[in-house]
Write a structure and sequence with these properties.
Elements (H helix, E strand, L loop, with lengths): L2 E6 L3 H10 L5 E8 L2 H9 L4 E5 L5 H7 L5 E4 L6 H11 L2 E4 L10 H19 L2 E4 L7 H9 L5 E11 L2 E2 L9 H9 L2 E5 L2 E5 L6 E3 L8 E5 L4 H7 L1 H4 L5 E8 H11 L8 E3 L2 E3 L1 H7 L8 H10 L1 E3 L2 E11 L2 E10 L3 H8 L3 H18 L7 E4 L5 H12 L4 E8 L3
Parallel strand pairs: 1-2, 1-4, 2-3, 4-5, 5-6, 6-19, 7-13
Antiparallel strand pairs: 7-17, 8-16, 9-10, 11-12, 12-13, 14-15, 17-18, 18-20
Length: about 400
C-alpha cells in the first residue's frame, strides 16, 4: 500500500516536493493544503495523485482534519506555525518533516531547538514515529555534508560552512528567493559555536576570504543567520567528534547588496522619524525590491537578457585529527547552475537545489529509509542514512566531492 502525504504550504518549497512525490511509486496520494485557494488549485491541476484542501494553519483542528490517515506531514509553512503542525502530526500519529526549526518556543533560539529535540522528540519516539527538521539545501544537504565529513576524523576542532551565491542578473535582482525572508536573514541574530559554547555573533561580521573552485575571483563571506550552527553546536559531542568551533558564512550578490544597508541602519525594524515622517527602514527597503522570479516566463525573460555571471559555491571545511595527525576534510557540493536548472526543470538554480534536496528527505520517508524515531535535525542522520540520501542526490546530479588533506594553517 502506498503512502499518503500531506504537503502543508504550496509555495515554492512545498510545490517542488509535491511534484517530486507525484513521480514516486511508493506514494499513493498527496494532499496539497494551504490557505491560498488559488495556489492549491493550480498545483493540484498539474499532479496525477493529488487532491487539494484549504487549511487555516492557525487552527490545529483544521490541520488535523486535512491530515487524517496521513503517513507523513510535510510542513512548508512559515516557521511560526511549526508548533501547531507538530501537534497535529502527533494527534494523527504521522511522521513529520520541516525545512527549518521554529523560533517561537523560547526567546533563546538554541533553547527552541532543545525543546524540539527533547520534548517533541520524546513524544514522537513514544509513537514510534520520526520528525526531521532542517531539510532543504542549507540546512539540509549542508548538514548531511558536514556529518558525512566526520567519517574521516577521530576528533574535530573546527567546522566552517560556506555558501556563495554568485548568480547575477543584468537587471536589478539582489535575491532569487523571497526578499522578505532574505532581508530578515540579513538582520536576524547569528549563532556560532566558540570554544565549545553557542554564542551570538554579529551579522555581516567576521569575514573570511576564499577562492572557490570554478569561480573567477576571491569571495568574501560573513556571519549569517542559519540553523546549522545551532543544530551542530548542540550535537557537537554526539555527532561531531567534540567540535569546538562551528561557523556559517554567506557571500555573494545578496550580501554585497545587504551589508551596506545593515551597517547604515536601513534594515532596522523599529519605527524611526525623519523630518516629521515616521517610517520603518526595513519596510521602506523591502518595498523597493523586485519579487523573486518563480514562474517559467519570468525566469526565461531574465535568462534571455543574459546573466552577468552564473557561479556559486557550497563548501564545508572540517579540521581535526586522524591517527594523531592534523587534517582538513574539504567537501564541495556540485549542482546544476541557474541556466542548467532552467533547461532541466524550468526553474532557477536556487529553486532546483533547495527544492530537490528537500524532496530527497521526503523520498527517504516514503521509501522507509530512516532507521530512527523521535525528532532529529538533518545533521543527526546515521552514516547509512547519509549514504542513502547522497545516492538519491547523485541521481539528480547533486554531488558531493570530498578531499582529505594535511592541514596547513
Amino acid at each position: 500500500m502506498g503512502k499518503k502525504i500531506l504537503v502543508l504550504g504550496t509555495g515554492a518549497q512545498g510545490s517542488t516536493v509535491a511534484q517530486r512525490m507525484d513521480e514516486e511509486p511508493n506514494v499513493e496520494k498527496i494532499i496539497c493544503a494551504d490557505a491560498d485557494h488559488k495556489a492549491v488549485d493550480e498545483l493540484v491541476k498539474i499532479l496525477k495523485k493529488a487532491e487539494g484542501t484549504y487549511v487555516d494553519a492557525n487552527e490545529v483542528d483544521s490541520i488535523i482534519k486535512a491530515a487524517q490517515d496521513a503517513d507523513l506531514i510535510i510542513n512548508a509553512l512559515p516557521i511560526k506555525f511549526a508548533p501547531k503542525v507538530l501537534e497535529a502530526a502527533l494527534a494523527v500519529k504521522a511522521n513529520y518533516q520541516d525545512f527549518a526549526a521554529t523560533d517561537v518556543l523560547d526567546p533563546w533560539w538554541p533553547k527552541c531547538v532543545e525543546i524540539l529535540y527533547n520534548d517533541y522528540g520524546k513524544r514522537f519516539r513514544k509513537l514510534g514515529k520520526l520528525a526531521v527538521i532542517g531539510t532543504g539545501s542549507a540546512p539540509g544537504m549542508m548538514c548531511v555534508a558536514a556529518k558525512n565529513s566526520m567519517r574521516y576524523l577521530d576528533t574535530c576542532e573546527d567546522i566552517l560552512m560556506m555558501v556563495y551565491e554568485g548568480v547575477e542578473a543584468k537587471r536589478f535582482l539582489p535575491f532569487w528567493w523571497s526578499p522578505f525572508t532574505a532581508l530578515s536573514d540579513m538582520t536576524d541574530p547569528t549563532f556560532a559555536l566558540k570554544d565549545g559554547v553557542l554564542v551570538e555573533t554579529e551579522p555581516h561580521s567576521l569575514p573570511v576570504t576564499r577562492l572557490f573552485k570554478g569561480c573567477a575571483k576571491e569571495v568574501t563571506l560573513v556571519e549569517h543567520a542559519h540553523d546549522e550552527t545551532v543544530y551542530m553546536g548542540l550535537n557537537k559531542d554526539t555527532h561531531f567528534k567534540g567540535a569546538k568551533n562551528i561557523n556559517f558564512k554567506y557571500g555573494g550578490v545578496g550580501i554585497d547588496f545587504s551589508t551596506p544597508l545593515y551597517r547604515a541602519g536601513l534594515l532596522e525594524r523599529e519605527e524611526q522619524t525623519y523630518k516629521g515622517h515616521t517610517f520603518i527602514p526595513f519596510d521602506v527597503i523591502l518595498s523597493h525590491l523586485p519579487p523573486a522570479p518563480k514562474y517559467y516566463n519570468e525566469i526565461k525573460e531574465i535568462l534571455d537578457e543574459g546573466l552577468v555571471k552564473d557561479e556559486g559555491a557550497f563548501v564545508v571545511e572540517c579540521t581535526g585529527t586522524k591517527d594523531g595527525k592534523k587534517i582538513m576534510v574539504e567537501t564541495y557540493l556540485y549542482a546544476p547552475g541557474c541556466e542548467e536548472s532552467f533547461k532541466r526543470a524550468g526553474i532557477t538554480g536556487e529553486q532546483y537545489l533547495t527544492g530537490q534536496c528537500g524532496a530527497l528527505f521526503t523520498k527517504m520517508f516514503v521509501n522507509d529509509d530512516y532507521n530512527q524515531t523521535g525528532l532529529l535535525s538533518s545533521d543527526m542522520l546515521t552514516y547509512e542514512e547519509c549514504d542513502k540520501y547522497l545516492a538519491y542526490a547523485n541521481e539528480l546530479d547533486i554531488i558531493l566531492e570530498t578531499e582529505v588533506k594535511p592541514y596547513l594553517k
